[in-house]
Each structure stands twice: as C-alpha cells, then as structure tokens.
Write a structure and sequence with these properties.
Chain lengths: 117, 108
C-alpha cells in the first residue's frame, strides 16, 4: 500500500510569506507527527496528533507555526511570515496507534524541503 | 531532561572495518530506544529498536543503562551501509526525541 505522502516536495518562498505543507498519512493510522530536519540540528519534534485528542504542540518553535488535522487524516502545517531560519526539511510520520501502546513504528514521508529566501 | 546525544557528525571507515555509532541518552525511567536510518534520496526508516533485541542488516545495538548508551555496531561495514543514522528515544509522552545524527561513510 501507499506510504506517507507529503506535498509539495520542494517549496521556495520569500521571507514574510505564508506557506502550507501537506501530509497524507497511511490509511488507518491514527497518530500523525511533524518533525523538522535542519542542517546541524538533527530532527526536531514539532507537533503530534492522536485521534480526536488535543494535539501535543510542545515542539512548535513559535506562534508563527500551526498545524491542523482534518477528519483524522490529512494534516496541514502552516508557517506564517516565514523567516530564513525556517528553511529546513519538514517531515511527517504516522503510526498505527498511540505511541504508548505497544511498538507502534513511525513511518516517515519523503519530506518537504522549504527554502526561505 | 530527556535528551539524545550523538557525538560524531561524521564517521568514515573502510569497507570490512568494524563500525560503532555512538548514542547516549538522558531519561529518568525505563527508556525505549531506536535507531533510524536515512539512505541517500530515501525516506527515514526504522532500523532497529532495543526492545526487539534483533540484528538488522548485520547491525546490533545494546542498551547499557549504567552508561546510558545505545551504541550501534556492525563487525564488518559494507559500502551500502553509507547513510545518515539517527538514535531516538521515546519520550514519556510518546513522541520521539532524536539525536543530531551521524553520517556513516564507508569507503571502498
């Protein structure tokens, strides 16, 4: 079956513009995660959705970042008034169930490479 | 604080040489640790987890609670092992905390 998909694969934007990044998780996966992969910073957790529960937003770096998940499936990460330091690869992952239940492996998408000029 | 440290950004070895990618963690409680790998132009994928005590592609990792380490080892490196390797810790809320990653370069 299809894995996690993300769009666009690449996004170039100008400083100050808003961007939206999309993630389609694996069908049936109830948990969805966003991470940021920056050069020299490793992988940084941003936000986590589990079913209808309130998302864990503890990793969002500023209030310019927000995310939503509609219908328990597709998720959109929005970055408002982008800054150059937002340039990174944004990764989405999904897992079958909550991370605390058993060994729910996270499956990653190919990422969206964001470049802010 | 919950933290994962991978001290080496780059590890370069010759084919056939032993490999050890270091990972240290900070966590109060019983940790759950993973190694993820990202080959060139491929997506990040799970390599192994300490709970399973498995060997994948010749790699093993042993959890050492005394040293708070979860080093990844392979006795004989192959060129196809060249990739970025991330050590990860499952936090008490379930999200993964990643280290900064180590690029393994296996030279012919």
């Amino acid at each position: 079956g299809a894995g996690v998909s993300q769009s666009p694969s690449n996004k170039v934007t100008e400083k100050g513009k808003d961007v939206e990044l999309r993630c389609d998780p694996i069908s049936g996966h109830t948990a969805l995660y966003w991470y940021r992969q920056s050069l020299g910073q490793g992988l940084e957790f941003l936000i986590y959705f589990q079913g209808n529960s309130a998302p864990d937003k503890s990793g969002l770096p500023s209030d310019r970042f927000s995310a939503e998940r509609t219908g328990g499936s597709v998720s959109t990460l929005t970055i408002q008034r982008t800054q150059q330091e937002d340039s990174a690869v944004y990764l989405c992952a999904s897992s079958l169930g909550p991370p605390g239940q058993g060994e729910n492996e996270q499956f990653f998408g190919p990422g969206t490479r964001l470049t802010v000029l | 604080a919950q933290r994962v440290t991978q001290p080496e950004k780059l590890l370069s070895v010759f084919k056939g040489a032993p490999v050890e990618l270091k990972c240290n963690y900070s966590y109060s409680g019983s940790p759950e640790l993973f190694w993820y790998v990202q080959y060139s132009r491929q997506r990040l994928q799970l390599l192994l987890r300490h709970i399973s005590r498995e060997s994948i592609k010749g790699f093993t990792a042993d959890l050492n609670k005394g040293e708070t380490s979860f080093h990844l080892k392979k006795p004989f490196a192959q060129e196809e092992d060249s990739a970025m390797y991330y050590c990860a810790l499952k936090s008490n809320t379930g999200k993964l905390i990643f280290g900064q990653g180590t690029t393994l370069q296996v030279k012919p």
